[in-house]
Design brief:
Shape: globular
Number of helices: 6
Number of domains: 1
CATH class: Mainly Alpha
Largest sheet: none
Low-confidence stretches: none
CATH superfamily: MFS general substrate transporter like domains
CATH architecture: Up-down Bundle
CATH topology: Growth Hormone, Chain: A
Helix content: over 70%
Order of helices and strands: HHHHHH
Number of strands: 0
Strand content: under 5%
Radius of gyration: 17 Å
Length: 163
């Protein structure tokens, strides 16, 4: 019973972390024109925008491999802490002095977010034994990114930001 309760707590933390990651990711992506205008004092060459998009996508690909390696070496508990820590480090992006530092901070956040989602299945497998319950939890994990994106979409619609 204690392990099951502990498992649900860890799942809640992971789920909320991934929803938060999605909110940050979608908000940052939807505000890219305003962000680049702020850093570059005007429009940016499309090549620069594409370079940033592809570099972040590349970071997301390697994050899955990195997440698996860290999980095997540290175990589930410590690996989750590393993933959540990297995800939280994405918060420093708003204080970055230039666009490239901002982009690197977003890549770190992407790696942390992807590590968190990779760790959800081992946590479910370790602490939850009922197959029907596992299915429900995995379904909730699958929609977590979409829930975060939906929250941001509603906020951006209801609270338009003036730049």
């Amino acid at each position: 019973m204690v392990n099951k309760r502990k498992g649900y707590f860890m799942l809640a933390v992971l789920w909320l972390a991934y929803v938060t990651f999605a909110m940050n990711w979608v908000a940052g992506s939807s505000l890219t024109p305003q962000i680049t205008k702020t850093f570059f004092s005007g429009p940016v060459d499309p090549v620069v925008s594409e370079l940033v998009n592809y570099s972040i996508t590349t970071a997301r690909v390697f994050a899955n491999i990195l997440a698996a390696i860290i999980l095997m070496r540290l175990g589930a508990k410590k690996a989750v802490g590393v993933g959540v820590g990297l995800l939280i480090m994405g918060l420093i992006a708003i204080w970055m002095p230039n666009y490239w530092a901002y982009t690197i901070a977003r890549m770190v956040m992407a790696i942390g977010g992807l590590m968190v989602i990779v760790y959800m299945n081992p946590v479910v497998s370790r602490y939850i034994s009922d197959p029907k319950e596992k299915l429900k939890i995995n379904a909730a994990n699958t929609v977590s990114y979409n829930i975060g994106a939906f929250i941001v979409a509603v906020l951006l619609l209801c609270l338009p930001i003036k730049w």
